[in-house]
Amino acid sequence: MHLVPPDRANRRGIDGHRVCEAVAAIGDADRVRTWAGRFSLLADANRLALPLALHRTGPPAVSDLAITTGMNDPAVSQALRLLRAAGVVERHQEGRVARYRVVDEDIRRLLEHCAADAG
After folding, report:
1. Where does the pLDDT of residue 6 fall: very low under 50, low under 70, confident under 90, or very high at 90 and above?
2. Looking at beta carbons, which pairs linking 64-68 to residues 24 or more positions away fall under 8 Å?
3. Which residue in 5, 71, 109, 113 is deepest, having the highest Cβ count within 10 Å?
4. The domain 44-118 is classified under which CATH number: 1.10.10.10, 3.60.20.40, 1.10.260.40, 1.10.760.10?
5. Domain ranges of the chain
6. Are 80 and 100 in contact (CB under 8 A)?
7. What SS3 string covers the chain?
8. pLDDT top residue among 82 and 58
9. C-alpha pair distances (Å), 13 with each of 5, 23, 25
10. What is the pLDDT of residue 117?
11. Model pLDDT for residues 62-97, shown as the tens digit of each residue
């Protein structure tokens, strides 16, 4: 059980090799925290709907996303602000129109899986 952290090394397990495999599967604690934050951000159905819509379309305007999701414009803007702060989406301005696209590659792969599952 060489992969077991020292603070847990004195505990008896049933299958030591599986414990080591599980510790390796979990990996770096900071990476787990990063993914937990991403999942927390996407745990809200409206916030998840936005990157799902963005993933399959060109960069739509906020008002178009509001129609798509059934949310009002301020709610879409607030959700996009959170997604942008987390580095999931990027905004670009075309005159008075703000358009968004997914820029986080890990999230893009996750959305690809979700989109394949929905089809």
Report:
1. confident
2. 65/100
3. 71
4. 1.10.10.10
5. 1-37, 44-118
6. yes
7. CCCCCHHHCCCCCCCHHHHHHHHHHHCCHHHHHHHHHHHHHHCCHHHHHHHHHHHHCCCCEHHHHHHHHCCCHHHHHHHHHHHHHCCCEEEEEECCEEEEEECCHHHHHHHHHHHHHHC
8. 82
9. 14, 13, 17
10. 66
11. 999 999 999 999 999 999 999 999 999 999 999 999
Q: Is 102's pLDDT higher than 80?
A: yes
What pLDDT score was predicted for residue 2? 65
**Whole-angstrom Cα distance, residue 115 to residue 119?**
6
Q: Crossing angle for the helix pair 29-42 and 105-118, nearest 10 degrees?
A: 50
Tokens representing 89? 């989406």
